[in-house]
Amino acid sequence: MLQEQEVHAAEMERTFIAIKPDGVQRGLIAEIISRFERKGFKLVAIKIVVPSKEFAQKHYHDLKERPFFDGLCDFLSSGPVIAMVWEGEGVIKYGRKLIGATDPQKSEPGTIRGDLAVVVGRNIIHGSDGPETAKDEINLWFKPDELMATKPLSREEIANTE
Ligand code: IDP
Ligand code: MG
């Protein structure tokens, strides 16, 4: 039988979400965070950072053969990005649902890109597209000690901290 801690660890799904410089510049940080928060996902890491171009190239390495790669990396490194890790059951797949299709012209209304963006090169948010990329992106953007341990405190533990 699994120990309680192992059960918890096995259930913990995490994804990397970033508000890109256009989302930050347009004042959409709270709007975007609140959509993940209201759904019931848990924020386990967050920071504001201006990535270097080299860092952006690492983040988007899968796309290096695409014609828009250079412009995309220039853009990601052009200003502050809100880098986050969100946790919850199904958060990788459902996070992508909340975000909507890559091209905002094709994103459904009700999604973040569908409601708040117009063109593919300024689609305001990034989300990992699968378990492997989620792991890689979390490791690229965060050190392990920057991630919250999200096991809730027991009543006794809360009482003991007062
Ligand atoms: P995703 O962000 O929905 O996962 P990807 O295909 O991984 O989409 O592309 C990464 C980012 O590259 C997109 O969010 C978008 O900003 C940009 N991008 C994708 N396709 C195009 C394009 O055809 N022209 C310009 N930029 C693009
Ligand atoms: Mg992608």
From TrEMBL:
Binding site for ATP: 20, 68, 96, 102, 113, 123
Domain Nucleoside diphosphate kinase-like: from-to ranges: 12-149
Subcellular compartments: Mitochondrion intermembrane space; Plastid, Chloroplast thylakoid lumen
Active site: 126 (pros-phosphohistidine intermediate)
Homology family: Belongs to the NDK family.
Assembly and oligomerization: Homohexamer.
Described purpose of this protein according to its UniProt entry: Major role in the synthesis of nucleoside triphosphates other than ATP. The ATP gamma phosphate is transferred to the NDP beta phosphate via a ping-pong mechanism, using a phosphorylated active-site intermediate. Shows the highest specificity towards GDP.
Name listed for the protein in its UniProt record: Nucleoside diphosphate kinase
Region of the whole protein represented: 55 to 216 of 415
